[in-house]
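Input record (one chain):
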Amino acid sequence: MMLAIDLAMVIEKLVLIVVVVSASLVIAMYTTFAERKVAAILQDRRGPNRAGPFGLLQPLADGLKLFFKEEIIPNFSSKFLFILGPALAMLTAVMTSAVIPWGDKISFFGRDVSLQIADINIGVLYVFGVVSLGVYGIMIGSWASNNKFSLMGGLRAASQIISYELAMGISLIALLMVTGTLSLKEMVVQQQQGGWGGFLGWNILKQPLGFLIFLICAFAECNRTPFDLPEAENELIGGYHTEYSSMKLGFYLFAEYINMFISSVIMATLFFGGYDMPFVDEAGLSPNIAALIGVAALMGKVIFFIFLFMWVRWTIPRFRYDQLMHLGWRILIPLALFNMLVTGAVILYFNK
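The corresponding structure, as predicted from the sequence alone:
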């Protein structure tokens, strides 16, 4: 009996992994289409409109183009590491989705199935650990290319990601002091308890400065404009992926869009209630309908953040590298420390 239960749980998790990873890849694929459409709207152009109705097959055309392009590995590169770099970047981008609560439980064949691959009590630490590994994919690929421009892009990426991870981590310490948990699922449940339909429980109202710091750091972690110094075309040709072609280049580009999607999901989960839909009484609905509404609510918040990423990209010019480091070390980290100290003082005052 125990073996049958365990086998059913393994099947559930395998199916959920396939669904989450496939959905992340499809969303990342169509995020590239959305980015080109948003850019076209902001620049008064049409954007992609030839491949399929309304240009909806453009991502498939781009994917096929990458598949059929010639695979080139430079003669003087470290071939194993050259292949490992983009694979590691892609793997770490997808692994982050394992601890995200995509919705509440659904009832399936008489079993309650949680829409979360792994509900671990240190979910925030897991996210930071996996994200920290992502820089190794960039560094390994840039060094293995045996190209000075690639190496400079990799060094830029490493110093940028490490610098902004500090401010991001400190900003989250204040949030953890408020919530008292490292579990992403528990954070969502806590945010559902607020007044005015649940809206007043969202952590954005408790940590607005922490959210602002986290948002800026998310732009830097994803190498998005105005923090796209590691791949600045007018300075480094193409940055850390200059020597890459075909699907190895596609993995690097795809990893950036998956990271952008996952960053949006994490921001929605930490600060905007996750799958919580304000003013909707889930108790009066069937579990499956309530879970689907929760998934739709989470995706709606994610779409807003993805649009924000794109809007900023096509609006704000790129920083100089000294400006980027000045913002990270001399503005964001002191602000995050100030926010943490003020949060601690307020908690101590009201709990004395």
